[in-house]
Amino acid sequence: MKQTLYLCWALLMCMAATAQTTVKGIITDKETKQPLAFASIVFNNKNTLSVIADIDGKFSFSANESLTTATCSYVGYSSETVTVTNANHNSLSFSLRFAQNQLQELVITPGDNPAERIMRKVIANKDLNDPDNLTAYTCNSYNKVAYDFKNSNAADSIKIKQFLKGGHFFMMESVTERKYLKPNRTEEKIIATKVSGFKNPSFAATATDLQPFSFYKDNIKFLNVNYLNPISKGSISKYRFTLQDTLFQGKDTVYVISYKPRQHKKFESLTGLLYINTNKYAVQQVTATPFEKGKIDLRIQQQYTNIDGYWFPEQLNYALILNDYPNPKTGMVAEGRGYIDHVVINPPLRKKEFSLESVWIDENAAKKDSLFWQGQRREALNTAEKSTYTVLDSLGNEYNFDKYLTTLEKLGRNRIPIGKFDLDLGKTLVYNRYEGFRFGAGLYTNEKLFSKLSLGGFVGYGSKDGNWKYGGEAIYTLDKRHEFTISGRYQDNLTEAGNYNYGFAQPTRLTLRSYMGYLMDRVREERFLIGSRIYRYIKWNAGFTHSYTTPMYDYLFTDTDGRQYTSYTNTEAAVNLRFAYGEKIINSFNQNVVTPTQYPVLSLSYAHGFEDVLGGNFNYNKIEAVAEQSYFTKNLGQTSYRLEAGYADRPLPYGLVFTGEGGYDKKIQIVVKNHFQTMEPYEFLSNRYVNLFTSHNFGGLLFKAGSFQPWISLHNNFSIGDLQNPGAHSYVSFKVKNKLFSETGLQADNIVKLNYMNIGYLGIGAGVFYRYGAYAYDNANDNLVFKATINFTIK
Q1: What is the residue-wise DSSP string for 605-656?
Q2: CA atoms of 446 and 403, how far apart (whole Å)
Q3: Is the predicted pLDDT of residue 116 greater than 80, yes or no?
Q4: What is the C-alpha separation between 264 and 184, in angstroms, rounded?
Q5: In whole angstroms, what is the distance from residue 219 CA to residue 234 CA?
Q6: Are 634 and 269 in contact (CB under 8 A)?
Q7: How many CA atoms are closer than 13 Å to the CA of 144, on its beta-carbon side?
Q8: Is 592 helix (H, G, I), strand (E, B) or coil?
Q9: Can you tell me the distance from the alpha carbon of 4 to that of 1, in angstroms, rounded to the nearest whole number?
Q10: 771 burial class (0-12, 13-18, 19+ CB within 10 angstroms)?
Q11: Which of 299, 291, 320 is nearest to 704 (CA)?
């Protein structure tokens, strides 16, 4: 028995001698009290005993030896050393003071910069480490966003903080299930959402709201600016990399490398830190923010973990900073945090398992109870977060925030809710050069009256032409998610003569081109239409239209049989298709929002006219097609093109063939997209045509001199067409475009920038366009057109 006891005692002593020492703590900024993501801690002055804090500034480290000191360092901050004791080993706290002068770059002697040598390996392994190059993956994500004032000491923010009882200005949480199948099929299902002040929110936060899922794309896009990724090919010649620290994690080494743009390099750049793990030379952590600041600033923080030999995102944080909103003394900041878990690498996914939308909200997402949320949160809500929900939920209930949310949703569809009806702004606000302002209204029933049926119409009186227009419509939605609708309408209205039709009408809004319209047809029309979205990338519709048209201009049409028409009846059946590969549908605010695709978008419309059917006067076939694309090329800028073509197989009245592609009007000298800037609206008439619009926007790549950073674009536009039997059209002037029409242009945006609501700038610019070739005017000055441009920019 004694021998057994001695043996047990000896074993216990050996275990005690080899027991691990564990230290935990947090690192924060001394001034802002915000956590410092990825700060490094070295114990006992040994780099082999080191750890990197996570995205929340927290760390935990265990060692097989006694830990007596801990030194915390972070690039741009003064280091701090504390003594580790039995009393504080589970709650070490570092509060570092920002000191930019502490950031001292290494002096590189002739030879290879060690940071660049490391970065070459990172770039060489970029495709290997990119999560989007996996065959498939699934994961879950818990996301939280809190909105606050940037300057908590400002008078306005202090008052609101007191009103909110120490809570945040606004807050929301969500839980999502994400899945991916190579090459580009993604789906993010929001299974839970909680928004302060709202009972039934129709929107939610995701980890990728303002940043990519991983930091491996060549360009990181934020609003309307594409920033060059420091780990893209060719970045070494544009970025200055500096090795700031070397840490050790088990068998691997972690290099801490700072980056910023080289002097005199003209490109949209980022600055921050890269933590590179020698295991596959992958990004373990990264921080990034635009080098040049604007009204809106963004900070990105990402952390990756190694799962089954693959580096995968673990935490995605961002801070959106509005420096001058609502005023420069206050500012606002939104901090979003995303925590990713339940990762499965290369599961057996199939395309048919993905829904139509890339991001969508489950119908029960807003109904999760407190027990569900307790199980999803990484840590319990703090006092400020609890107060946010308590105060704002009470206010939301008292003032019915959900009602205002409904109004916002409707505005996105160009409508304003009025009880059980919606005011259609597109049919209420109408203006063109023929009728002037149209005074009237469009009114439709909404879901409060019928869940799937909408009944409505419009009436209006033209201030210039002195005539009434009116119409009625019924729309039945069979499947909202697939946009499957059946509709019928009657209208006595004006339409622009010879206008193009690509089959999928957008909500009617006042546009520069609609302002220019002055050749109008009065159309009395009955129409039936059915359509939906099939698969993910295809939309279709088919319709049957019977109409009676009266030109509101002097006109006579003579057909091939010698019959003459001043007015005519048309009976037409049409089918329209749209294919947009790579297009992503995001369901938010109770509607589908489509994000642009980098691939070509194709549209095709076919119509057949029936003679002697319901009094139809013409038998014809008409085809219209469009291919358009906009894509960004690293170091070059944004390239866009639009190729249009149309064909009618026989002579038809003016209103049924093609005109109106011109965008030059002396009364409105502003660039009109996808129109010819030196061509008048009805200058040419065609029954077959091809138009090509091309542009390349260099952005800020050419000029970067302080605040003067105009965006330079080049345009080249071409058109050719033909018209069968031009003599069939009497009393209206036009040209036949059977030779090549050409124009080129140089556009400079953002020459002058005007503050816009303290969130960005209205950029005022100018463009000059020159008409040349077969349809150039004899006087060279007549071929020059000067136009203004207006756009929005954050910097």
Answers
A1: EEEEE-TTSTT----EEEEEEEEEEEEEETTTEEEEEEEEEEEESS---GGG
A2: 14
A3: yes
A4: 36
A5: 12
A6: no
A7: 16
A8: strand
A9: 5
A10: buried
A11: 291
* Total-model pTM: 0.89
Sign of CA dihedral 548, 551, 554, 558: negative
Amino acid 500 reads Y
φ, ψ for residue 100 (rounded to 5)? -55, -30
Which of these, 94, 160, 56, lies nearest to 384 by C-alpha position? 160
User: What is the model's pLDDT at position 7?
Assistant: 46
How many other β-carbons are positioned within 10 Å of the β-carbon of residue 300? 21
- Judged on CB neighbours under 10 Å (0-12, 13-18, 19+), 513 is buried
Q: What is the DSSP letter of 393?
A: H
Cis peptide before 183 (omega within 30 of 0): yes
The yes-or-no verdict on residue 523 having pLDDT over 50 is: yes
For residue 284, the number of C-alpha atoms closer than 13 Å in the C-beta half-sphere is 24
**373 SS3 class:** helix
- For 39-78, give the DSSP string: -EEEETTEEEEEEE--TTSEEEEEESS---EEEEE-TTB-
Residue with tokens 């003579």: 558
Nearest-angstrom CA–CA distance, 272 and 719: 48
Cα angle for residues 150, 156, 158 (degrees, 5° grid): 80
Closest C-alpha among 543, 670, 664 to residue 608: 543
Residue recorded with tokens 């000491």:
153
Q: Are 447 and 480 in contact, with CB atoms under 8 Å apart? A: no
Distance CA 243, CA 382 (A): 37
| Tens-place pLDDT, residues 564-600 | 999 999 999 999 999 999 999 998 888 888 888 999 9
| Residue 558 to residue 515: CA distance in whole angstroms | 30
How far is 76 from 101, CA to CA, in rounded Å? 7
Nearest Cα to Cα of residue 293 among 264, 321, 265: 321
Pairwise CA distance, residues 763 & 795, whole Å: 10
Average pLDDT over residues 402-426: 91
Tell me the pLDDT tens digit for each residue of 205-221.
898 888 999 999 999 98
Residue 12, C-beta contacts closer than 8 angstroms, at least 6 positions apart: none
Residue type, 143: N
Pairing mode of beta strands 584-588, 784-793: unpaired
Span 328-349, pLDDT tens digits: 888 899 999 999 999 999 999 9
Per-residue pLDDT of 9-29, as tens digits, reads: 444 434 443 456 889 999 999
Say how many C-beta atoms besides its own lie within 10 A of residue 256's C-beta: 23
- Residue in this structure with the two tokens 């061509």, named with its chain if needed: 679
